[in-house]
Amino acid sequence: MKNTFVFLALLTLAGSQPVFGAIGCTLSNPAEDLKYLYPEMTTYKEELQEFPRMKNGAELFKGLRARLGSDLDPIYETYETPYTVYSVFQGQNKIGIVHGVNVPGKGGVIQVFLALDPATAEIKSLFFQRLESPAARQLRSKEFRAQFAGFTLADFYKHDYYAAMDPATKTGRVAALKPPPIDASGKPDYQASLRGVRKNLILLDFFVFGRRFEPFFERASQAAEKAGAKKE
């Protein structure tokens, strides 16, 4: 599978027939990487997720943009883009879920991976497999990445809700995030990294967690509609 993605990526760089939608994001060395994240791991399973193969896939893909709050990248975020979900086991018990996404950054594609608790959908750890940025060292720092431990998709939707209700309010875990010490050249990649975390959580809510955080999105959407109506 990994060789397939490499081949498709090379075709893209070579300017051959458009295969942009086939560019996925997989671990370079899944057995080693997952063992590092979960030392107690005994086995793992890879599962390929693709919107065209999912029930109501077209509707879910359309919903991705709305939940992400930004336009989708024509290379890395197409309807045909494949996503690989890694389930980590200790014996018969699932102890972790790992998933990565590509997001466009200033210096090139950024690969944002999350390790999640399979029961709570909380982030256990965040890491970058690929990050070419003037702020790469700062974004990779343990101090910055540790802030995301315990985050769920609900935190991002709550941030949207608070922003709609009172833009001046700095409430919630997302608002409390402290950017690493970076200059202006690194800020686009900081924003892209946050977008990557959010996108990752949205996709996992689609693929793994049965859209359990949908009520938070609906509440945020209703708040945004009310705020827009007041401005008119």
List keywords for this structure.
single chain, 232 residues, alpha+beta, five-stranded antiparallel β-sheet, 8 helices
Q: What characteristic shape results from the CA principal axes?
A: globular
Class inferred from helices and paired strands: alpha+beta
Quick one: biggest sheet? 5 strands, antiparallel
| DSSP helix fraction | 40-55%
Strand content: 15-25%
Placed side by side, the strands forming the largest sheet appear as 1-2-3-4-5
What is the helix tally? 8
Explain what this protein looks like in three dimensions.
- By secondary structure, the chain is α+β, with helices and mostly antiparallel strands.
- The chain has 8 helices and 5 strands.
- The protein has helices at residues 2-14, 30-37, 57-68, 136-139, 142-146, 153-165, 187-207, 214-231, and strands spanning 43-49, 83-90, 93-105, 108-116, 123-130.
- It has a 5-stranded antiparallel sheet with strand order 1-2-3-4-5, sandwiched between helices.
- β2 and β3 form a beta hairpin.
- α6 runs parallel beside α8 (214-231).
- The longest helix has 21 residues, at 187-207.
- The N and C termini lie far apart (51 Å).
- Mean pLDDT is 89; it is low at 1-21.
Secondary structure topology:
Blueprint: H1 2-14, H2 30-37, E1 43-49, H3 57-68, E2 83-90, E3 93-105, E4 108-116, E5 123-130, H4 136-139, H5 142-146, H6 153-165, H7 187-207, H8 214-231
Helix pairs in contact: 3-7, 6-8
Give a short overview.
The chain is of the alpha+beta class. It contains 8 helices and 5 strands, in the order ααβαββββααααα.
